[in-house]
Automatic annotation (TrEMBL):
Domain spans labelled ABC transporter: 5-220
PANTHER family recorded: ABC TRANSPORTER RELATED (PTHR24220:SF685), IMPORT ATP-BINDING PROTEIN (PTHR24220)
Molecular function terms from GO: ATP binding; ATP hydrolysis activity; transmembrane transporter activity
GO CC entries: plasma membrane
Pfam families linked: ABC_tran
InterPro entries registered for this protein in UniProt: AAA+_ATPase (IPR003593), ABC_transporter-like_ATP-bd (IPR003439), ABC_transporter-like_CS (IPR017871), ABC_transpr_LolD-like (IPR015854), P-loop_NTPase (IPR027417)
SMART domains per UniProt: AAA (SM00382)
Protein name, per record: ABC-type antimicrobial peptide transport system ATPase component
Keywords: ATP-binding, Nucleotide-binding
Length: 220
Protein backbone atom coordinates (compact mmCIF):
# COMPACT_ATOMS: atom_id res chain seq x y z
CA UNK A 1 0.00 0.00 0.00
CA UNK A 2 1.38 3.41 -0.98
CA UNK A 3 1.67 5.78 1.97
CA UNK A 4 -0.04 9.15 1.77
CA UNK A 5 2.82 10.73 3.72
CA UNK A 6 6.20 9.23 4.57
CA UNK A 7 8.71 10.64 7.08
CA UNK A 8 12.28 9.36 7.02
CA UNK A 9 14.57 10.42 9.88
CA UNK A 10 12.67 13.71 10.01
CA UNK A 11 13.72 16.17 12.70
CA UNK A 12 13.01 19.79 13.54
CA UNK A 13 15.08 22.25 15.55
CA UNK A 14 14.16 25.87 16.15
CA UNK A 15 16.88 28.45 16.65
CA UNK A 16 20.64 28.00 16.67
CA UNK A 17 23.50 27.52 19.09
CA UNK A 18 22.70 27.87 22.76
CA UNK A 19 19.19 29.09 21.90
CA UNK A 20 18.35 25.98 19.86
CA UNK A 21 15.28 23.98 20.83
CA UNK A 22 14.84 20.45 19.55
CA UNK A 23 11.12 20.03 18.83
CA UNK A 24 11.31 16.70 17.03
CA UNK A 25 14.09 14.13 17.06
CA UNK A 26 14.77 11.88 14.03
CA UNK A 27 11.51 10.11 13.29
CA UNK A 28 10.41 7.42 10.86
CA UNK A 29 6.67 7.04 10.25
CA UNK A 30 4.10 6.53 7.50
CA UNK A 31 0.41 7.32 7.18
CA UNK A 32 -1.36 4.87 4.91
CA UNK A 33 -4.74 5.35 3.18
CA UNK A 34 -7.62 4.90 5.61
CA UNK A 35 -5.40 5.11 8.71
CA UNK A 36 -6.89 6.24 12.03
CA UNK A 37 -4.05 7.57 14.18
CA UNK A 38 -4.14 9.46 17.47
CA UNK A 39 -0.92 11.29 18.40
CA UNK A 40 -0.75 11.79 22.15
CA UNK A 41 1.67 13.49 24.48
CA UNK A 42 1.94 16.52 26.77
CA UNK A 43 1.93 20.12 25.52
CA UNK A 44 5.26 21.01 23.95
CA UNK A 45 6.21 17.39 23.28
CA UNK A 46 6.35 17.80 19.48
CA UNK A 47 2.87 16.72 18.36
CA UNK A 48 2.08 19.93 16.47
CA UNK A 49 5.53 20.02 14.90
CA UNK A 50 5.05 16.48 13.55
CA UNK A 51 1.68 17.38 12.01
CA UNK A 52 3.05 20.61 10.50
CA UNK A 53 5.88 18.68 8.86
CA UNK A 54 3.43 16.10 7.51
CA UNK A 55 1.30 18.92 6.14
CA UNK A 56 4.27 20.50 4.37
CA UNK A 57 3.82 23.68 6.39
CA UNK A 58 7.35 23.55 7.79
CA UNK A 59 10.68 22.39 6.42
CA UNK A 60 12.49 19.66 8.37
CA UNK A 61 15.90 20.41 9.85
CA UNK A 62 16.96 16.91 8.87
CA UNK A 63 15.56 13.93 7.00
CA UNK A 64 12.82 13.97 4.38
CA UNK A 65 9.05 14.17 4.14
CA UNK A 66 7.33 12.92 0.99
CA UNK A 67 3.76 12.28 -0.12
CA UNK A 68 3.90 9.15 -2.34
CA UNK A 69 0.14 8.67 -2.44
CA UNK A 70 -0.63 12.32 -3.15
CA UNK A 71 2.15 13.80 -5.26
CA UNK A 72 4.51 16.69 -4.77
CA UNK A 73 4.38 19.21 -1.94
CA UNK A 74 2.81 21.75 -4.28
CA UNK A 75 -0.14 19.40 -4.88
CA UNK A 76 -1.15 19.03 -1.23
CA UNK A 77 -3.57 21.95 -1.08
CA UNK A 78 -6.28 22.64 -1.88
CA UNK A 79 -7.79 19.19 -2.03
CA UNK A 80 -5.81 16.08 -1.10
CA UNK A 81 -4.55 17.25 2.30
CA UNK A 82 -6.49 19.34 4.81
CA UNK A 83 -5.49 20.53 8.26
CA UNK A 84 -7.48 21.66 11.27
CA UNK A 85 -5.42 24.03 13.39
CA UNK A 86 -5.54 24.46 17.13
CA UNK A 87 -5.93 28.23 16.88
CA UNK A 88 -8.15 30.53 14.78
CA UNK A 89 -7.87 29.87 11.05
CA UNK A 90 -10.93 31.48 9.44
CA UNK A 91 -10.44 34.41 7.06
CA UNK A 92 -11.98 37.52 8.72
CA UNK A 93 -13.40 39.20 5.57
CA UNK A 94 -15.35 36.11 4.50
CA UNK A 95 -18.62 34.86 5.94
CA UNK A 96 -18.75 31.43 7.56
CA UNK A 97 -20.17 29.74 4.46
CA UNK A 98 -17.62 31.51 2.22
CA UNK A 99 -14.81 30.26 4.48
CA UNK A 100 -16.11 26.71 4.26
CA UNK A 101 -16.58 26.85 0.48
CA UNK A 102 -13.20 28.45 -0.26
CA UNK A 103 -11.01 25.30 -0.54
CA UNK A 104 -13.40 23.70 -3.03
CA UNK A 105 -13.49 26.90 -5.08
CA UNK A 106 -9.69 27.09 -5.08
CA UNK A 107 -9.66 23.48 -6.26
CA UNK A 108 -11.74 24.48 -9.29
CA UNK A 109 -15.27 23.57 -8.21
CA UNK A 110 -18.04 25.85 -9.55
CA UNK A 111 -19.17 28.41 -6.98
CA UNK A 112 -22.72 27.01 -6.70
CA UNK A 113 -21.40 23.49 -6.13
CA UNK A 114 -18.87 24.64 -3.53
CA UNK A 115 -21.51 26.59 -1.63
CA UNK A 116 -23.92 23.63 -1.68
CA UNK A 117 -21.22 21.37 -0.25
CA UNK A 118 -20.39 24.03 2.34
CA UNK A 119 -24.02 24.17 3.46
CA UNK A 120 -24.10 20.39 3.81
CA UNK A 121 -20.91 20.39 5.88
CA UNK A 122 -22.26 23.13 8.17
CA UNK A 123 -25.49 21.18 8.61
CA UNK A 124 -23.57 18.06 9.66
CA UNK A 125 -22.01 20.07 12.47
CA UNK A 126 -25.30 21.79 13.36
CA UNK A 127 -23.95 25.19 12.31
CA UNK A 128 -26.38 26.16 9.55
CA UNK A 129 -27.58 29.22 11.46
CA UNK A 130 -24.06 30.69 11.34
CA UNK A 131 -23.70 30.58 7.55
CA UNK A 132 -23.98 34.32 6.92
CA UNK A 133 -22.07 35.51 10.00
CA UNK A 134 -18.50 36.81 9.96
CA UNK A 135 -15.82 35.08 12.06
CA UNK A 136 -15.80 38.03 14.50
CA UNK A 137 -19.49 37.40 15.20
CA UNK A 138 -19.10 33.83 16.44
CA UNK A 139 -17.43 32.28 19.48
CA UNK A 140 -14.05 30.57 19.47
CA UNK A 141 -15.68 27.18 19.87
CA UNK A 142 -18.03 27.83 16.97
CA UNK A 143 -15.10 28.99 14.83
CA UNK A 144 -13.28 25.74 15.54
CA UNK A 145 -16.31 23.73 14.46
CA UNK A 146 -16.57 25.84 11.29
CA UNK A 147 -12.93 24.99 10.57
CA UNK A 148 -13.86 21.31 10.83
CA UNK A 149 -16.76 21.87 8.41
CA UNK A 150 -14.34 23.53 5.97
CA UNK A 151 -12.18 20.41 6.01
CA UNK A 152 -15.15 18.10 5.46
CA UNK A 153 -16.27 20.14 2.45
CA UNK A 154 -12.84 19.96 0.82
CA UNK A 155 -12.96 16.15 0.30
CA UNK A 156 -9.35 15.42 1.36
CA UNK A 157 -7.48 12.11 1.19
CA UNK A 158 -5.67 12.98 4.42
CA UNK A 159 -6.98 14.98 7.37
CA UNK A 160 -4.51 16.26 9.97
CA UNK A 161 -6.16 17.68 13.08
CA UNK A 162 -4.15 19.51 15.74
CA UNK A 163 -6.11 19.44 19.04
CA UNK A 164 -9.41 20.12 17.20
CA UNK A 165 -11.47 19.87 20.41
CA UNK A 166 -9.28 22.03 22.66
CA UNK A 167 -11.71 24.98 22.54
CA UNK A 168 -14.86 22.87 22.85
CA UNK A 169 -16.81 21.48 25.78
CA UNK A 170 -16.94 17.70 26.10
CA UNK A 171 -20.28 17.34 24.32
CA UNK A 172 -19.35 19.43 21.30
CA UNK A 173 -15.89 17.87 21.25
CA UNK A 174 -17.34 14.38 21.10
CA UNK A 175 -19.69 15.46 18.29
CA UNK A 176 -16.80 16.88 16.27
CA UNK A 177 -14.87 13.62 16.61
CA UNK A 178 -17.99 11.66 15.59
CA UNK A 179 -18.35 13.78 12.45
CA UNK A 180 -14.63 13.61 11.61
CA UNK A 181 -14.60 9.82 11.88
CA UNK A 182 -17.82 9.46 9.87
CA UNK A 183 -16.55 11.82 7.16
CA UNK A 184 -13.19 10.07 6.97
CA UNK A 185 -14.97 6.72 6.64
CA UNK A 186 -17.29 8.03 3.92
CA UNK A 187 -14.39 9.51 1.92
CA UNK A 188 -11.96 6.66 2.66
CA UNK A 189 -9.63 9.37 3.97
CA UNK A 190 -6.86 8.90 6.52
CA UNK A 191 -7.26 10.81 9.78
CA UNK A 192 -4.42 11.79 12.11
CA UNK A 193 -5.34 13.72 15.23
CA UNK A 194 -3.07 15.23 17.87
CA UNK A 195 -4.78 15.21 21.26
CA UNK A 196 -4.06 15.14 24.97
CA UNK A 197 -7.53 13.68 25.63
CA UNK A 198 -7.19 9.94 26.12
CA UNK A 199 -10.94 9.37 25.75
CA UNK A 200 -10.56 10.66 22.18
CA UNK A 201 -7.34 8.75 21.53
CA UNK A 202 -9.01 5.51 22.61
CA UNK A 203 -11.43 5.81 19.68
CA UNK A 204 -8.59 5.48 17.16
CA UNK A 205 -7.15 2.20 15.89
CA UNK A 206 -3.53 3.31 16.27
CA UNK A 207 -1.83 5.52 18.82
CA UNK A 208 1.50 7.27 18.49
CA UNK A 209 3.07 8.74 21.61
CA UNK A 210 5.36 11.78 21.59
CA UNK A 211 7.58 12.73 24.53
CA UNK A 212 10.44 15.26 24.40
CA UNK A 213 10.46 15.13 20.62
CA UNK A 214 10.63 11.35 20.43
CA UNK A 215 7.84 9.62 18.51
CA UNK A 216 6.87 6.03 19.38
CA UNK A 217 4.74 4.64 16.55
CA UNK A 218 4.27 1.00 17.53
CA UNK A 219 1.18 1.31 19.72
CA UNK A 220 -2.06 -0.08 18.26
Amino acid sequence: MTALVSCREVSRTYGRGDAATVALRPTVCDVEPGARIAVTGPSGSGKSTLLHLMAGLEDPSGGTVSWPGIGSRSELRPGPLAMIFQGPSLLPPLSVIENVALPRQLAGAPSDEALEEARAALARLELSELADKLPEEISGGQAQRVAVARVLASRPLLILADEPTSQLDRGNGAHVIDVLLEAADAAAAALVIATHDHTIADRFATRWTVADGVVITDRS
